[in-house]
Design a protein that fits this description.
This protein has a domain at about 5-85 and about 110-130 and about 165-190: Cyclic Phosphodiesterase, Chain: A (Alpha-Beta Complex), CATH 3.90.1140.10. About 30% of the residues lie in helices and about 40% in strands. It is built from 5 helices and 9 strands, in the order αβαββαββαβαβββ. It has helices at about 5-10, 20-35, 65-80, 110-125, 150-155; strands spanning about 10-15, 45, 55-60, 85-95, 100-105, 140-145, 160-165, 170-175, 180-190. The strands form 2 sheets. It has a 5-stranded antiparallel β-sheet. Strands 3-1-8-9 form a 4-stranded antiparallel β-sheet. The protein is globular, with a radius of gyration of 17 Å. It catalyses: a 3'-end 2',3'-cyclophospho-ribonucleotide-RNA + H2O = a 3'-end 2'-phospho-ribonucleotide-RNA + H(+). This is RNA 2',3'-cyclic phosphodiesterase. Hydrolyzes RNA 2',3'-cyclic phosphodiester to an RNA 2'-phosphomonoester.
Length: about 200
């Protein structure tokens, strides 16, 4: 198998909650207001269709692992019901692969944190390797920084509170192109269903 064929045998995957249309519209307005501020001209804004709250970053997984991942999602969803999620306020954080990101904070609540913890536990139990083991910090990435300096005061001054009911979690494939990442939903599982 050539390197190119081997690369195609793997997919870069993550499991996430997709913000509903009203939340996406509101976050677009927040980003639109920031785009007008010169302090935020050195950022690359996320496309609205790519906004999400990651539950588990899976990294490179084989096509064979996708069945186990979907089965794990179904198993976990059967033990959880829909819940409310609140997104409130902005901040910036650094991570290991970017100079930093601007994020909308997702307020921690027991339902969200338990769903994420159970999902990682079941995925691990099914032999899925490569899971991100950092402390879980729920958020929506809005932009990637091109420079390390950003006005935290300006971000903190942006006040908003958005709510949505979480009824599903989705499995996505991430493909990086020169124009940016493209996320494709591979599967969606409803919370509370036993199928």
């Amino acid at each position: 198998m050539t390197d190119k064929e081997n690369e195609k045998a793997y997919q870069r995957l993550f499991i996430a909650i997709r913000p509903d249309d009203d939340v996406v519209k509101s976050l677009r307005r927040v980003c639109g207001n920031l785009k007008k501020d010169k302090a935020f001209e050195n950022v690359r804004w996320m496309r609205p269709e790519n906004l999400h709250v990651t539950l588990a970053f899976l990294g490179r997984q084989s096509a064979d692992d996708v069945e186990q991942i979907v089965a794990a999602m179904a198993e976990v969803s059967a033990g959880h019901t829909s819940f409310d999620m609140e997104i409130s306020g902005l901040t910036s954080v650094r991570n290991s692969w970017h100079k930093g990101v601007i994020i909308a904070r997702v307020l921690e609540n027991e339902s969200l944190m338990t769903l994420q913890r159970d999902l990682v536990e079941v995925l691990s139990g099914r032999g899925i390797e490569g899971l991100d083991n950092r402390k879980y910090m729920p958020h929506v990435t809005l932009a990637r920084l091109k420079t390390e300096k950003i006005s935290q005061d300006r971000l903190s001054a942006v006040g908003f509170s958005l709510r949505q009911q979480v009824t599903t979690m989705e499995l996505y494939e991430s493909v990086t192109l020169q124009s940016g990442a493209v996320y494709t939903m591979l599967n969606s599982v409803h919370l509370g269903r036993k199928d």
